[in-house]
Specification:
29 helices, single chain, elongated, 6-stranded antiparallel β-sheet
């Protein structure tokens, strides 16, 4: 990182979260980039304030907010630290930064001039004129998130003290140390004032540290590093070698196992009365089936070592209970083995001092009992039950059921560990410390060694995308959107101000933590930001195309659920194109329209042309308050014909525009859930001329299944040209998935705003016909009336689509009555927080009911109004429930 400044990070988060400025992590990175350009780097308080306003303030109002907050929050800290720097300069004492207050710990001395790596350059300060030419490094403030790496049973201090207790000091060599008692005795006895000397003490203890680098030891790499670092400088000789699974005829000098040395050469250098050996390995305790080969190799190695060293002990990072029935249990009979705990460490030290027999007499070192969080278990159970019919997640569901059975108390840690795109043991410890602190430290390696995670090289782990997706959905149910946002903030703090030993950078753990939260709180906003990034890569170099496509693919699960498959397809095509596989790329591009419109971001698909639209004539009517037709007009509209087997689907072009959504207070029989009225702007789209018919349903139901089975003939009122009914919201969504895959276009249910905009067709009356409705124009319960309209026919069943021969001004038929039409949105009881565009309005409660519009053949006409809203469970079916679809394909007019 170029900049590692805690005060500025806290200030940035304050602007973002408390003052509500529209900031993303990229905005913070802009400040980092500025620090890397010498000519732009701030050199004093005013320049820093100006840079923050320029980079983070999108408007003059925002810049003013930033300036006021900067003076309030940063200036006092700045002045305090400047005074501290002045005082330190006067005293001319260098600043020492120690890792601990313990006097026996090694310390690091840092010069008073602060390193340029953080962009803070401490130059000479003119005390007389009080001229400040740079910003000093402030002390770390109290953090909302704990940055602590002392999460093991043994601290650095305990390890250092333990190693020091093994030192063996002998007086030998040149006599250069004053013997005070001897000098005093000589003066008293011989009356000779002359110093007596004796040889200084020399540490004779030697340590051979052997560290296992097998995959199962990756979660314990920090412990291994600390064993090495705390032993350095304490022994006369401290040799560190590495091996994988079992030491053999050679050991390695480096953790990467590249530089090898034969065991014979190593043994020659050891001393039978001075060398102590500590082996750090799990000994195969994580393996289900004991390895006889491993045990034999260990036995052979120990035999070759025993005659050349003083003592051999084995430190196992796993609790003793985990050894039973594994290779570790058999190895423990060959070498004294102790668990990584305070008691185990004490036993090791005693054995290396020759004070015990090596038999570990303590009680079994098992994991402590942990209370299972029933709410987390229920949240995961809900998600898995709802996803049980999703073939894409079959393996992920199996993994999560098994994990929940084996580690029910670890579910919360699994939820939080699923948040980063990739994770290291250090980062998982950090998440545990801040969000699941009641779990023992061993929960982290347990989780990393479970089926949930897979090692992807170095110290990085990753989850299967399906597993990760389901865990994050469960986390959202258990803790809500706020926890996702907190995780985003915590990850930002970790990446910008992380522990010194962390090796992961921002791109490895997720380019933008905010995007992960957006995927499960505001997925449409995520799609928009990813589309913007993808747009830039369309004309960029191949490596950028591959990198961006890979980034988009990491969010495939939440994007696919919201019908953003075209965005994912485009990313896959660009990945192929970036790798030089042009033919494969064009194969994918051919499945897409000429242009994608992803939340207002228009993406031109390489090598594609628009689909031409045809025109058709239709008739509209207007009625007076009594339902009498007072005006007829013939219009034309454009449409797209989708061929599906032996039938077709006609999709009408709906031009973009603005309208007032909801009903006014003066509208007869209006309801509170239709209010408040609010302006909405809609982009152009295609919508079915009619509700989906039974013929169209049968054709699509015969297509390959995506997520669920479809009844090919569910309707009660039979007829190929009648609207299909007895279909649930889930059924309708599956219809759209199959049609999208078949047609290579994006089909989905309309958003509620799109439906009402299309129904009204620029009218403001309760019905697009006018102030009332009649059974000559629509199919509803004619025993009831609306306003001054007349009674009419009650047909008690559906009618063939378009049978009334009149459409609205857009060319859509049967928008009032016949069958209820499913919309994509969740149900909200009013429009208080409704979007002002065509966005599908979703809640955090994924089991919330879904929207219905348009009324049906069996209802009072007031329920058929353009503004009327209803809802049902997504799994409900009825002979009054149907739907129509919208299409997002690109076209040419």
């Amino acid at each position: 990182m170029i900049l590692d400044e805690p005060h500025l990070i806290q200030f940035f988060l304050h602007l973002k979260n408390e003052l509500g400025l529209p900031l993303q992590i990229e905005d913070y990175k802009l400040l980092q980039k500025v620090w890397g350009i010498e000519s732009l780097r701030p050199q004093n308080y005013d320049e820093l304030k100006t840079r923050c306003q320029q980079l983070w303030g999108k408007t003059q109002k925002d810049q003013k907010k930033i300036g006021e907050a900067f003076d309030k929050d940063i200036k006092p800290i700045f002045e305090r630290e400047i005074q501290t720097a002045i005082t330190e300069k006067q005293s001319s004492n260098p600043s020492n930064f120690s890792q601990s207050s313990q006097t026996d710990l090694p310390t690091e001395t840092q010069p008073q001039n602060i390193s340029k790596q953080n962009g803070f350059i401490q130059e000479n300060i003119d005390i007389d004129t009080k001229v400040v030419t740079a910003i000093p490094q402030p002390k770390k403030p109290q953090q909302k998130y704990i940055l602590n790496d002392e999460y093991f049973p043994l601290s650095r201090v305990q390890l250092v003290q333990g190693w020091r207790s093994l030192r063996k000091s002998l007086r030998r060599g040149k006599e250069d140390e004053v013997d005070i008692p001897g000098t005093v005795k000589r003066i008293c006895q011989e009356n000779i004032v002359e110093l007596v000397y004796y040889p200084s003490r020399e540490n004779q203890a030697e340590l051979l540290l052997l560290i296992d680098q097998s995959d199962s030891m990756i979660p314990f790499y920090t412990i291994a590093e600390r064993l090495v670092k705390t032993a350095e400088g304490i022994f006369k000789s401290c040799q560190v070698f590495y091996f994988r699974n079992s030491p053999r005829n050679a050991l390695f000098h480096d953790p990467e196992l590249l530089e090898k040395e034969s065991l014979d050469k190593i043994l020659i250098k050891l001393h039978s009365t001075k060398t102590q050996v500590l082996i750090f390995s799990d000994g195969g305790a994580t393996e289900i089936i004991p390895s006889e080969v491993r045990v034999e190799l260990i036995q052979k190695f120990v035999v070759s070592l025993e005659s050349t060293v003083q003592q051999i002990v084995w430190l196992n990072p796993l609790p003793e209970k985990d050894w039973f029935g594994t290779s570790a249990e058999k190895i423990s009979s060959l070498v004294p083995m102790f668990p990584f705990s305070v008691l185990g460490w004490q036993e090791i030290l005693q054995m290396l001092k020759g004070k015990t027999s090596g038999t570990f007499q303590s009680a079994t070192m098992a994991r402590p009992e942990i209370i299972v969080d029933d709410e987390s278990s229920n949240a995961l159970e809900d998600v898995l039950e709802r996803e049980s019919e999703n073939n894409r997640h079959e393996e992920a569901i199996e993994i999560l059921y098994d994990f929940a059975d084996d580690f029910p108390a670890y579910l919360n840690l699994a939820f939080h560990g699923a948040f980063p795109l990739a994770i290291t043991p250090d980062l998982l410890y950090y998440l545990r410390e801040n969000f699941v602190a009641d779990l023992p430290w061993i929960a982290v390696p347990d989780l990393l060694l479970s089926r949930l995670f897979e090692s992807i090289g170095g110290k990085l782990y990753q989850m299967d995308s399906g597993v990760r997706h389901l865990l994050l959905k469960a986390l959202k149910i258990r803790f809500g959107n706020d926890r996702l946002n907190e995780l985003s903030e915590a990850l930002l703090v970790y990446l910008q101000q992380g522990l010194e030993e962390s090796i992961a950078d921002a791109e490895e753990l997720g380019e933008n933590p905010d995007w992960i939260a957006l995927g499960y709180t505001k997925p449409t906003e995520l799609a928009k930001q990813l589309a913007q990034k993808l747009e830039k890569s369309l004309t960029s170099k191949n490596e950028n195309k591959i990198k961006t496509a890979s980034l988009v693919a990491t969010f495939a699960e939440p994007l696919a659920e919201l019908e953003f498959q075209p965005l994912l397809k485009l990313a896959r095509g660009l990945a192929r194109q970036g790798r030089g596989y042009e033919e494969g790329a064009q194969e994918i591009f051919e499945q897409l329209p000429v242009e994608l419109n992803i939340e207002g971001v228009k993406l031109k698909v390489p090598g594609k042309r628009g689909i031409p639209l045809e025109t058709f004539p239709f008739e509209t009517v207007t009625v007076n308050p009594k339902g009498e037709i007072i005006h007829r007009e013939t219009k034309q509209a454009r449409y797209l014909t989708e061929n599906i087997g032996k039938t077709t689907l006609e999709m009408v072009y709906i031009p973009g525009g603005s309208f007032t959504m909801g009903s006014p207070e003066t509208e007869k029989d209006s309801y509170d859930d239709e209010k408040p009225q609010h302006p909405v702007t809609i982009k152009p789209f295609l919508m079915g001329k009619y509700p989906v018919t039974q013929a169209q349903w049968k054709a699509v139901a015969a297509l390959p299944q995506i997520n669920r089975e479809l009844d090919p003939d569910p309707s009660k009122f039979k007829g190929d040209d009648r609207p299909v009914e007895m279909v649930s919201w889930d059924d309708a969504v599956e219809f759209c998935h199959r049609l999208s895959q078949y047609s290579h276009k994006t089909y989905r249910l309309p958003s509620e705003a799109e439906w009402e905009y299309a129904c009204r067709a620029a009218t403001i009356t309760p019905f697009h016909f006018g102030e009332t409705i009649t059974t000559d124009l629509a199919n509803y319960d004619g025993n009831n009336t609306y306003g001054q309209g007349p009674k009419g026919i009650y047909r008690q069943k559906t009618t063939p689509v378009g049978s009334f021969k009149v459409a609205n001004a857009f060319g859509l038929y049967d928008m009032h009555g016949n069958v209820w039409e499913w919309c994509a949105d969740h149900w909200y009881s009013n429009y208080e927080l409704a979007p002002n565009d065509e966005t599908i309005w979703l809640s955090s409660d994924e089991i919330s009911n879904r929207l219905l519009r348009g009324g049906s053949w069996g209802l009072n006409p007031r329920y058929c109004r353009a503004a009327f809203r209803s809802n049902r469970d997504a799994g409900d079916r009825g002979d009054y429930l149907g739907f129509r679809v919208v299409c997002l394909a690109a076209w040419t007019l």
